[in-house]
Amino acid sequence: MVQRKSIYSVLVAGLLVICLLGAGCTSQPEEGAPTATPTAAETTGVPTVMPTPAETTEYAFNETNDNETVTVPAGSEITISLDENPTTGYSWNVTSSAGLEYVNDTYIAPETELVGAGGTHEWRYLAAEKGDAGFSAIYKRPWEETTGNETTFSMAFTIE
After folding, report:
1. Smallest Cα–Cα separation from 134: which of 110, 150, 160, 154?
2. pLDDT in tens, 8-25
3. C-alpha span between 145 and 125 (Å, rounded)
4. Burial tier of 160 (Cβ tally within 10 Å: 0-12, 13-18, 19+)
5. What is the pTM for the complete model shown?
6. 157 contacts 135 by C-beta, under 8 angstroms
7. CA–CA separation, 137 vs 96, rounded Å?
8. Distance, CA of 62 to CA of 78 (rounded, Å)
9. For residues 90 and 85, what is the distance between their CA atoms, to the nearest angstrom?
10. Is the dihedral of CA 73, 67, 78, 128 positive or negative?
11. Residues 122-155 as b or e (16 or more Cβ within 10 Å = b)
12. Given the DSSP bridges, would you call strands 131-140 and 151-159 parallel, antiparallel or unpaired?
């Protein structure tokens, strides 16, 4: 009787191992796989008229534009992108003057799974008022004193 229980125990354990191995071999759909979203025209048969936004001029700047003065028309969208690695404690401390209307800022993580890799910080502004405006940034750890040896970035804008 004891021998039968041990045989059943071994069979049940073996069956569980086979089930676990089989479950581990299944495939999952790829993460972030795009799926098509039907449009109103596809679902109802009625075409949709999308309003066209007012034309705005977009300007993009990065580290290569450090210490430049540029002229942009009023109403322009300005994007400034700078490399940043917050995993090291460093971040950009940004200052902008009147004439540049802050829209938003976003940190864009790197497209790698490498731990500690840096990404890009992106600031968006609107050239709101005619005149002179400025953007400046200092790359430092917020808890450390400014020594003058930090990496800096600045741009001047003439808004017409």
Report:
1. 154
2. 776 666 655 565 555 555
3. 28
4. exposed
5. 0.64
6. yes
7. 9
8. 11
9. 6
10. negative
11. bbbbbbbeeeebebebbbbeeeeeeeeeeeebeb
12. antiparallel
DSSP one-letter code for 88:
G
Give the C-alpha separation, 149 to 76, whole Å. 33
Looking up tokens 């005619």 gives 130
The DSSP code sequence of 25-76 is T---PPTT---PPPPHHHHHSPPPPPPPPPP--EEEE-GGGTTEEEEE-TT-
- pLDDT tens per residue across span 108-132: 999 988 888 999 999 999 999 999 9
Query: What are residue 121's DSSP bridge partners?
Result: 82, 107
For the chain, percent helix, then strand, then coil, each to nearest 5? Answer: 20, 40, 40
Q: Which tokens hold the place of 122?
A: 């992106």
44-64 mean pLDDT? 67
Q: Tokens at residue 82, please? A: 């700078």
- Residue 64: what residue type? T
